[in-house]
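If you are new to this repository, start here. Below is one unmodified record pulled from the training split, so you can see the exact layout before writing a loader.
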Amino acid sequence: MLKPLRQGLPPLDPTAVSDAASCALPARYEAVREARRFTRGTLDQWDVGDRFDDICLVVSELVTNALRHATPAEQDRGDERNPSVRLHLLRWTERLVCAVRDPSHDTPAPRDSDDFSAESGRGLFLVDSFADGWGWHPLAGTLQGKVVWAMFRLPPAG
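And here is the target side for that same chain:
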């Protein structure tokens, strides 16, 4: 079991965020497509250089994992009034963080497999491969669940 990871995430001053966007995603698999569309539209407005495709891939994997492993099975997957997954994109001058909030308290666990041709089970491996850092932490206060995040270093502006 992994302990909450914050390593690799440098101290980020929330007041210094230059851009932020978020969207609620319903607990259905079509939400992955919605997350990709939202991410592409947001990143088109931000200068993320050659990290565009890496960020889109990682968002897809994080959202897929949240829907597959962190949403309650008994939840109606068609209930859009009660979105259980939320995607946040936060941009600082030279960093971008993708964070996916879900209702589960379960620790994200990468699968230990040497089968790289498998159709599933590689999500966190891909996140680790394409992001500059990733981790997770439980939510505090009245919020239930956890946030799984991935951080990307961006090229200097200009």
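Two things worth knowing about this chain: Residues 28 and 77 are 5 Å apart (CA to CA). The longest strand covers residues 95-102.
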